[in-house]
Amino acid sequence: MTLSMGPQHPSTHGVLQVVVEVSGEIVEKAEMEIGYLHTGIEKSAENLFWTQAGTVIERMDYLSPLGNAMCYVLAVEKLLGVSDRIPERAQSIRVLLCELTRVASHCVWLGTGGIDLGAISTFFYTFDLREDILDLIELSGGARMHPNYLRIGGLNGDIPEGFLGKLDALIEKYPKRMHELRALLQNNPILRDRMIDIGIVSPEDAIAWGLTGPSLRASGIAYDVRKAFPYSGYEKYEFDIPVRDDGDAYARFLVRLEEMDEAMRIVRQIRQELNTPGPIMIDDPKIAQPPKETIALSMEALIHHFKIVSESFRVPPGDVYQAIESPRGELGYYVVSTGNNRPYRVRTRPPSLYNLQTLKLLAPGNLIADLVVMIGSLDPVFGEVDR
Amino acid sequence: MPSSQTPSIAGTALDPTSLRPDISDAEIVRIAPAELRDKLIALRGDGFTMLLDIGGVDYLGREPRFDVVYHLLALPTKVATLAEVGTPRRIRLLVGVPENAPTLPSIQDLWPNANWAEREIYDLFGLTFEGHPDLRRIQMPYDWEGHPLRKDYPLRGPAREATPRPAFALKSNVPAGTPPSGKVAAALQKQIARARGQAPVPARGEDS
Asked: Bridge partners of B103?
């Protein structure tokens, strides 16, 4: 018999259609239909200025928008040749926000993953924590989810007053909330029964199918872009990469839980740096908009401001591949410039797309009910799968 | 013909990959489509175990027109610690594909995850992959016409492009030298008068 799960199905975490061939309750074959959220972001980006493209690119992975922005600005900065001139404070704040979105993103995964298994209450605990993080993101850039706060060359502005106080409150609240969540979930017999030995990925398969991120590390391979190819100053911070060998859904669950703790560990280290003020934008009038108060006084500032706003800047021709560790795995941007004021091509390496594809390998021979657990444990985000 | 909605590429570099600044992001190799499979098999033997991504670029006006870009990463295939993974090597294969022979050998038998990546390039660029078991559209609907990421594909789609713009939206519709109608100036005068309290402010819904 052929069953169609989705595209409107709560356990598919978005709009995914899985066409399952079943015999009894056992899945024989699972084919996926994606593309329901295809919005042509890569095409749009080609038609926008370098400075504008970040706005649409942020909307790909809507659970970790700052990760997308981070990867894009790093790639463009490499092409411009200004990577080592980005102020340290800007880099720290970028990392801070990326790690906070990692926690927020894992919160959504934990909440919705809990609902998949019937644990409704976890959702409220995790979304409460996520709300605090979204408040911080709103303070930084003005919007809760897509702040467009990271700019080529630095940041849109310094963190406002009151940000650090809220951050301190979050740092204080986090361990208690996490303790509650762990007590609710980690040794819960239902959760363990549903997750242990479900969707096992061997290290060989994980590599062959291009699995990255927490899902790869749950299969025993400690590959993390933050450690292998440090960017934006990650080498300065002390943090561990959680790894498990079992490769099943429960291992992926534990790796993500531990990753949240490690992310907060980085956040606490950055918190210490934020007391000393400093510049947050590169000192280059061709890239950075001049400070607002100089525009009325200086002719050059006015011209630079007008140029950047009306026609952006030109990026030297070339191509570059930049990868970062998004909450889902290796997020990469292959950016091509022809020397124009718009990107010629922005190709994304979406971790969700490749992670989700692994379901073709995992599903056969398992129960339909376990299919739901597997999709949840791979943590796909469809804004990114479909782009 | 590039679409009117696509920004002009005149006066820009047509092969940016040959002009790239010195960025050490990966080793870069340019090969011909015929060598692709042999090269990939050799690289896999050399330790490049993971196919990270396959992407496409359309350099309209260049020969060969398309570039298909294979990103590989050398990771261990067994349980490995952080130190054992170290800094893995990256390599990028650029394969030029001409417009008159838009086809490449499929590599989905070497790396199963190439399946969706190749389908996406077929869907968005119109390049075919020989030996692919299931070459269907993946992002666009099955009955879609055209390949959106080609540079000659209009941003808002061919249907929108073919629809004539309404006459009032065309600047050329107003002959040069036409005197201003005076409507704008009159509306401005009215607004100023209202602001100074010399004219009544219309009630909500009333025509101003």
From this structure: B128
Query: What is the percent of chain B where pLDDT is above 90?
Result: 24
What six digits make up the tokens of A277? Answer: 């003020």
A24: left (phi > 0), else alpha (psi -120 to 50), else beta? left
* Residue from B6, B49, B54, B75 whose CB has the most chain A CBs within 10 Å, to mutate: B75
B66 beta partners: B58, B97
Q: Do B14 and A228 touch (CB under 8 A)?
A: no
B47 contacts chain A (CB < 8 A): no
pLDDT in the model for residue A365: 85
Q: How far apart are CA A382 and CA A34, in angstroms?
A: 8
Residues B118-143 have a mean pLDDT of 90
pLDDT at A134: 92
Looking at the complex, report in whole angstroms how far the Cα of residue A345 sits from the nearest Cα belonging to chain B.
7
Between CA B154 and CA B148 the distance in angstroms is: 8
Distance CA A72, CA A67 (A): 9
Chain A residues closer than 8 Å to B52 by CB: 210, 330, 332, 349
- How is residue A17 written in tokens? 């259609």
Q: Does A336 touch chain B (CB under 8 A)?
A: yes
What share of chain A in percent tops pLDDT 70?
99
Both tokens of residue B142?
A: 């099955």
DSSP string, B37-78: HHHHHHHHHTT--EEEEEEEEE-TTSSS-EEEEEEEE---SS
State pLDDT tens for residues A5-42.
878 776 667 788 888 888 888 888 888 888 888 888 99
Contact B149, B125 (CB under 8 A): yes
Segments in chain A forming alpha helices (H):
41-46, 50-57, 65-80, 88-116, 121-141, 163-185, 189-195, 203-208, 214-217, 225-228, 249-273, 292-295, 299-311, 351-357, 359-362, 368-378, 382-386
Is the predicted pLDDT of residue B177 greater than 80, yes or no?
A: no
- Coil, helix or strand for A219? coil
User: Using a CB-CB distance cutoff of 8 angstroms, which residues of chain B are in contact with residue A77?
Assistant: none
- A291 CA to centre of own chain: 30
Give the whole-angstrom CA distance, residue A19 versus residue A371.
Answer: 12
**B79 and A337 in contact by Cβ < 8 A?**
no
B11 — pLDDT class (breaks 50, 70, 90): very low
* 8 Å CB contact between A373 and A117: yes
Q: Name B96's bridge partners.
A: B67
pLDDT at B174: 63
Can you give the pTM of this predicted structure? 0.86
Q: Is the pLDDT of residue A333 over 90?
A: yes
- The mean per-residue pLDDT over the stretch A248-260 comes to 91
Residue A235 in tokens: 């080498």
Inter-chain CB proximity B50 and A210 less than 8 Å:
yes
Asked if residue A10 has a cis previous peptide bond (ω within 30° of 0), the answer is no
ipTM: 0.88
- What is the pLDDT of chain A when averaged over all its residues? 88
Q: Which helix (H) or strand (E) holds B160?
A: helix B158-162
Residue type, A57: I
